[in-house]
User: Fold this.
Amino acid sequence: MTVTNVHKDPEALTMIITADLDATVERAWQLWADPRQLERWWGPPTYPATVEVHELTPGGRVTYFMTGPEGDKHAGWWEVQVVEPPTRLQLKDGFADEAGTPNDDMPTTITTVTLAEREGGGTRMTVESQFPSLEAMEQMIAMGVEEGITAAMNQMDGILAAA
Assistant:
């Protein structure tokens, strides 16, 4: 299992997911930087992602949709804020309608991904989501965001092992 810890802090309005990967930092970065690899793990196994736009540069956008078991589609977007290969990525992360238009009725988060060499080998990845309010944090946790991203990230080891 890739994910080793999930820490929710309602006072800080954050959820931090820690994962240990059996790969170099540079190789782990490719899971985010390569859209074909990203869509192999972004989304729970029963909701595979299709990446439509992937501009991983500051000010760039990433758009995608996940397809559910019944063929239902759920779209999302990132507004890329910081890109420091191969160790740091910061995104504004939100939901979209089927046409890919941002859904302003749903909260957005600021997500910071940090990749660091792990003592003893491999990479420690932390994904910190900063929520705009406690209500937004509770809403997204009630929607299953924690379970969804954990299931998604647990697919990373398989991708790394296959490469």
